[in-house]
Amino acid sequence: MKAIEAVQISARFSSRTVFHSVEFSLQRGELVGVIGPNGAGKSTLLRILANLRQPDSGQVQFFGRAARDWKPRDLARRIAYLAQDGPVHWPMNVGALVSLGRLPHRRFFSGESNADRAAIERAQAATDITTLRHRTMREISAGERMRVLLARALAVDASVLLADEPVAALDPQHQLAAMELLRTLARHDRGVIVVLHDLSLASRFCDRLVLLYDAGIYAQGRPNHVLGDEFMAAAFNIEVARGERDGRQFLVPWQHYRARPEDR
Amino acid sequence: MMIFGSQRGLAPAVLTHGTILGGIGALFVLSLAIGYAALDIPTALNDIVGGRTTPQTVVLVELRLPRALLGLLVGFSLGVSGAAMQGLMRNPLAEPGIIGVSGTAALGAVVVFYFGWAGALTLALPLGGIAGAVFATLLLYVLAGRGAGTTTLILAGVSINSFAGALTALALNLAPNPYAALEIVYWLLGSLADRSLDQVWLVMPLMVGGWLMLLLSAPALDALTLGEDAARSLGFDLGRVRLQLIAGTALAVGSAVAVTGAIGFVGFVVPHVLRPLVGHRPGRLLLMSGLGGAALVLAADIAVRLLPLRVELKLGVITALIGAPFLFHLIYRLRSEI
């Protein structure tokens, strides 16, 4: 059974069509990267797949059932969502914030269970924030904040994680660590969808890439295919430089074209 | 009561709640003991137990007890609703009246005054106030709808408040004589004096119902710390959460204003002061803020009786005198944070 399956979905903002006729599915055990230029609808797609926005047409099924057939709380235990630049409205301490990820598992008036504590500790260790847990959200940096929010999403211990640009604010060490973490989740039979701007990370860590461009999925499949020169030129208007290390390809954006492809 | 407390935070939280509860107990007894008519509480209690009606028992049961009970109930209502509204709006400047219920509850009572029904039925005033609060809640839903976001709610609340203010001004303008206008103005200032136990029994179940609705939304308010998307992804139906918070606030604050008039700033200042004590967690703040509100209103109501002035100050005047400078201070601090 597919963890998430979207059939012929479209999204509009008033008169502008963000995308249409999008077919997408996620299996447990795979790490899927969503890439595309600004405004291509990556976050919108992720919000639809997280059941936070209804598609304007088409259907989405979660573990074989439509969203309306799920109790919100049950679905919340299975799908964790990490927003891009998500707000934190009160200066709670880091540990308390991470523990919010356990809310779908909690019964009212009950304290933290052993499972709750174990999940929180695992999430904090995995994101390297254990030493920050007594600080407040005002006393940490933007990158640390992103890791705390990632830990919050991990603490849900869901079978699917949808993460919108989780590595954008991180330093190189923690970028690699975060991608390795997502990789590990996939190896442990979780499904992960991650929106990325870093093409090298996308190429190295993802099983499959989805390139959103031109109001739909412009290309999808293995990273080597999706990150090909033609797709890069068409979707991002860039030329990439490529290299190889330990038998794996990497690429960096090298220069951008002055004119859009249709004018070249 | 611990709402989603971690083990580590348990001991200090129990301690703080215990301290506030002890303080409320002491203030409650003080509130019974202090007043113009002489009262010896042990004698009065003795008479009550013995089934005798003496001047002492009358003072205790008909003057002091309603006042102390209302202080407790109204204070808790304002405190818990203020914390709930700040949590819902995710804004430290929100207060219980933000959704318009206090303005319309006051208007409901003013209408009762204006048409002279207050003398006809002892419970006419609070009933009018409650009707006003119910009307505001319905109007809020017509204006903002079930799926309304925070900004729409605030705008709807502001417009309802100003409309209620306009109608209140109209009633004052058209008042048949200066005394009627003065009576309305005095009532609007907010006071716990000269209320009866009947009024207490009328509003208590409504308030307690409202408190329960608010206290039960603690986990949702915690989740809202992360914004609306994250709260929904944690399994909360935000439409229902908003409905529960608005209905709870309307019940608690609407019935509070209906008996006492508008007592400002309590619901705004108390959650703000107590927030750091609960680690800025909006869910835990609810109960703490309710208790703090009860303590503050009891204390302020004792203060108005102790101040050596020719006339007793209205409670709403005292709370505003304390609250407004606090707001100045808060704005100054917020400004330096930006």
Task: Describe the structure using short key phrases.
heterodimer; A: about 260 residues; alpha/beta; Rossmann fold; 6-stranded mixed sheet; 4-stranded antiparallel sheet; B: about 350 residues; mainly alpha; ABC transporter involved in vitamin B12 uptake, BtuC; 14 helices
Care to describe what's here?
The complex is a heterodimer of chains A (264) and B (338). Chain A is of the alpha/beta class. Chain A has a single domain, classed as P-loop containing nucleotide triphosphate hydrolases (Rossmann fold, 3-Layer(aba) Sandwich). Chain A contains 9 helices and 12 strands. Chain A has helices at 42-49, 72-78, 94-99, 114-126, 142-155, 172-187, 199-205, 223-226, 229-236, and strands at 4-13, 16-26, 31-35, 57-62, 65-66, 79-82, 160-164, 191-195, 208-212, 217-221, 238-245, 248-256. Chain A has a 6-stranded mixed beta sheet with strand order 6-7-8-3-9-10, with helices on both faces. The longest helix of chain A is centred in the C-terminal third of the chain and has 16 residues, at 172-187. The model of chain A has no long low-confidence stretch (mean pLDDT 93). Chain B has one domain: ABC transporter involved in vitamin B12 uptake, BtuC. Chain B is globular. The two termini of chain B are 36 Å apart. Chain B is mainly α. Classes of the chains: A alpha/beta (264), B mainly alpha (338). Chain A binds chain B through residues 47, 50-52, 71-77, 79-81, 83, 86-93, 95-97, 99-101, 103-104, 106, 108-112, 136, 149, 152, 156, and chain B through 1-7, 10, 90, 216, 219, 222-227, 229-230, 232-237, 275, 279-282.
Q: If classified by CATH, what would the architecture of chain A be?
A: 3-Layer(aba) Sandwich
User: Percent of residues of chain B in beta strands?
Assistant: under 5%
Looking at the structure, the CATH topology of chain A is Rossmann fold
Q: Could you describe the largest sheet of chain A, including whether it forms a barrel? A: 6 strands, mixed
Mean pLDDT of chain B: 89
What is the number of helical segments of chain A per DSSP (H or I, 4+ residues)?
A: 9
Span of the ends, CA to CA of chain A:
45 Å
Shape category of chain B: globular
Estimated share of beta-strand residues of chain A:
25-35%
The top-level CATH class of chain B is: Mainly Alpha
Number of domains of chain B: 1
CATH architecture of chain B: Orthogonal Bundle
Q: Could you tell me the radius of gyration of chain A in angstroms?
A: 19 Å
Question: How would you state the average pLDDT of chain A, rounded?
Answer: 93
- Strand tally of chain B: 0
Radius of gyration of chain B: 20 Å
H and E string of chain A? EEEHEEHEHHHEHEHEEHHEE
Portion of residues within helices of chain A: 25-40%
